[in-house]
User: What shape does this take?
Amino acid sequence: MKDKQSLASWNLISRIHFFEQYPNTLVVNPPAEAQLPSSISAWHFYAHAIFQSRSNSYIGAQPPNVEEQESILVFLPKEKKLCNYIFEALQSVSQHGTQLYIVGSKDSGAKSWAKKQVGNWSAFQKTQSGNHCQVLCAEYLANEPRKDSWIEKNLSVTDVTLGKTQLSLSFLPGVFSQDKLDLGTKLLLEKLPSSISGDVLDFGCGSGVISQFLLSTQSERQGSINSMHLCDLNAFAIEASKHTLKRFNASCSFYLDDGIPANLPKVDWIISNPPFHQGKSTNYEIATQFILKAKSHLKANGKVLLVFNQFLPWERLLAEQFKRISVIAQNKSFKVVTAE
Assistant: This one.
């Protein structure tokens, strides 16, 4: 689903001919539908296929160091903590006088940044408006880039108790269900089959909570976990999950992808609370394609285990792909099913 607010921001940028005025610009978090000039570099947080195929696109949790960059244009995400992280991290690739432009709709909180100062940036000043959006500008005041461990600086850790199991989860801005365990995943973990073992894919891994729970409760299972494969669309989720699992002496692989990775070896289990949001926008396509392709990534007798909101059509879609569907838990809001 297209993000109408991001598209409105893009239309404003196009109308004022931004890239003709500022050809040496790093664009941050542009909408997927934006037709960027081929010479423009872009920093993305989400591993959409359209971004992966573009030569000047960089996908990750830290900004790329682009030569001859004179200005930066940020399409504001709605999460304020993520905005702060972006502004702080961009200091590491900025020189004295680098211009930082931000664009967003009223709903994204663009107006709230006016006259605010972050790090070594000057206070933001409004420069353009239109399409219910605003463009604001700040200037980098320091003489040198500010190098720092921005990921470590912005990590937060949340301790969660589930039955007898203690979990310690790492989060970064923009990661799903930050600082708490969402109710759907909680129901899934409470009802995990004891037969889960072998090679496991944790799809839409977020902070890595499902993987940490599986590794923490291995002694209670019928077999051991041979390997964990964690995949997420969000670069910040991959970084957070690496920190969540770093204390475990386990074989863990991480994939930044908007679907099941092509290079994933076949697994015994695929477990997921399938994502249907990107940031605060709704997107059903990723979960739909995930379910349609899951069977081809399973070993013989492999299983899929999902939790999802009751209003979502995933049980019907699973039934079209698999011979046997079992509901193992449900409440008014969520349903947990296996497919084989």
